[in-house]
Please model this.
Amino acid sequence: MDNVRVLVVGGHGKVARLLLPLLVRAGHQVTAVFRDPAHGAEVAETGATPVVADVEQLDVEAMATLFAGQDAIIWSAGAGGGNPRRTYAVDRDAAIRSMDAALRAGARRYLMVSYFGSQIDHGLSAESDFFPYAEAKGAADAYLASTTLDWTILGPSRLTLEPPTGRIETANQGATAGSVSRADVAAVVAHALVEPATIHRVIRFNAGATAILDALSEDDLA
Model:
C-alpha cells in the first residue's frame, strides 16, 4: 500500500504525535482527528490535516461520514484512565463503532493500538484500577478480530519516553511484557500499515534487538 489515505483517531495523543510525521514523510495523505480545538495548530505542524471531532459523541453513521474517502483507519485514541465510565465509552464503545463505521465507509485497513496484555480473559480482579481499561480493550480487540476488516492489533508493552531504537521483540520471538518507547511504537504502526504480513495478526511487542521491518515480516510473525 503506497500513498495511503489514512485517518488517525486520537491524533493529538503522545504516540500519534510521533506517528503523524512518519506517515507524512512516507508519502501518505494523513488526517488526524482529535477532540480539543486548541490542539489544531500543533497537529497541523506534523503535516497532517487536523480535524476536530469527539468520537465519544459520534454514532456509526457520523463516524462513517468522517471516514469517507479513507483507505485506512488507525485507532490511537483512549480515555486516559481514571474514569471508568469514559474508559468504557471511548476504549470500548467508540472503538467498536469506529470499526462498523470503517466497514460502512469502505476503509478496509484498520490498525488498533492496544497493549501487550489485552485479551478477554485478562485475569485482573474487578477491584483493580486497571480493570475497566483491560475489559474495554479486550472487548474492542475481540470485536475487531471478528470483523471482515483487514485488521491488525498492535500490543506494545509499558510505554516510555526513551528515544527510538528502531528495534523490537515480538511475543512470537519470545518477548514477555516489558517496556518499549513511544517512538518505536509509532514506527511499528507506520510500518505495519503497509506490511501485508501484519493483516489479521495480533502483534505483541516490547523493546528488543530485531529491526522493526524484520520483526514484522512473515517469518517472524508465523
